[in-house]
Amino acid sequence: MMAFWEGYVSDEVMGALAPIVVYWLYAGFYHLLPPLDCYRLHARAEESKNVVSFSNVVKGVLLQQTLQAAVALSMFQVTSRRVVIERPVQPSIWIQVIQIGIAMFVMDTWQYLIHRYMHVNRFLYRHVHSQHHKLVVPYAIGALYNHPLEGLLLDTVGGAISFLVSGMTPKTSVFFFSFAVIKTVDDHCGLRLPGNPFHLLFRNNTAYHDIHHQLHGTKYNFSQPFFMMWDKFLGTYMPFTLVKRPDGGFEARPIRHES
Questions:
Q1: Residue whose C-alpha is closest to residue 205's, from 218, 221, 219
Q2: pLDDT score of 240
Q3: 41 belongs to a structural domain
Q4: Quick one: a GO biological-process term for this protein (predicted)?
Q5: What is the pLDDT of residue 259?
């Protein structure tokens, strides 16, 4: 089965650039929506808690994506000869599904461990990870707003390991990394839109990650972007409930509180 980009750009170039294009299209969609106060997890007045400007968020995301694209292109170049020799044709759809499942597991595991360590290690939290938490009230375009070192370790290296361990081809990676980007943006969008498939299929969703960004988030709900298995297995899971606010919106509240 031919992909729509074949004949125009290589799979390697598409694998590096497609997640960036998808990020801005999907995050831009959320940014252009009307206020939708009745679906917000935070009243708009709470956005004053954020201590970084929108323009700096955009610059930070673009910097991280530039580094990601450079690493991705280098990785594809190094592995392309091996892929050609070992797998001259694209695997069957079922093999690709298995590879994507493996990549999801590997990415979740890597990001949980690195993310949690960046909270536990006071130096790394203060000088690196705290940059992401300047967005106390997350929004879609800020999903990848991180310190460059965190972006390199958490997302870029995590993505490279997922790609290599799963054995997927650059063509398959286009779909996997684009999906991972969409899920990450959705987790930070701050909206509970009715019928959102991510809220129906994933318990690790916008509200789940919103708990992490609030006061209780310093010790709970580190899992991202797909499942919450490591939070549950390792005792960092914070259950929550959605409570209706007086202005009509929803608020994610922890069910049990920090003692």
A1: 221
A2: 87
A3: yes
A4: lipid biosynthetic process
A5: 44
With a pLDDT cut of 70, the percent of the chain lying above it is 92
In a domain, residue 112? The reply is yes
Structural domain contains residue 107: yes
Tokens of 158: 């995590």
Total structural domains in the chain? 1
CB environment 147-179: b (16+ within 10 A), e (fewer): beebbbbbbbebbbebbebbbbbbbbbbebbbb
Residue 2 lies in a domain: no
* Angle in degrees, CA 96, 98, 99, rounded to 5: 60
The closest of 35, 84, 31 to 57, measured between CA atoms, is: 31
- Indicate the pLDDT class of residue 100, thresholds 50, 70 and 90: very high
Torsion sign across C-alpha atoms 251, 109, 104, 162: positive
3-class DSSP state for residue 209? Answer: helix
pLDDT band at 1 (very low <50, low <70, confident <90, very high): low
Please, are residues 145 and 57 in contact by the beta-carbon 8 Å criterion?
yes
Report which of 197, 186, 144, 156 is spatially closest to residue 70, judged by C-alpha positions.
156
| Closest by Cα among 252, 253, 216 to 231 | 216
Domain that holds residue 97: 11-254
